[in-house]
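To the wet lab folks,

You asked to see what we're planning to order before we commit. Fair enough. Below is the target structure as tokens, and below that is the sequence we designed to fit it. If anything looks off to you, flag it before the synthesis order goes out.
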């Protein structure tokens, strides 16, 4: 990952999120394309790949991916 504009601590957090997304997708037996094609996710494979490598992804992309993988992040926010 090449995110020179963020601190080392934040880089580590970004890598942890990226790894979490990838591992959860694999545990669910989904390819990047299959995850992206899921109802409610509707993302292309490149967007999934960017998130899994910690590159250029938005919070909305993150929300779509984790909800597609069965996690409602708003349960923890409320």
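Sequence we intend to order:
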């Amino acid at each position: 990952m090449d995110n020179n504009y963020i601190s080392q601590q934040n880089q580590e957090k970004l890598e942890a999120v990226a790894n979490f997304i990838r591992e959860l997708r694999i545990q669910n037996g989904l390819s990047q394309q299959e995850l992206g094609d899921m109802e409610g996710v509707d993302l292309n494979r490149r967007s999934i790949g960017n998130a899994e490598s910690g590159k250029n992804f938005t919070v909305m992309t993150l929300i779509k991916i984790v909800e597609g993988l069965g996690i409602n992040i708003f349960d923890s926010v409320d």
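Structural context that might help your review: The helical segments are 8-27, 32-37, 45-53, 59-68, 74-77. The mean pLDDT is 89.

Thanks,
Computational group
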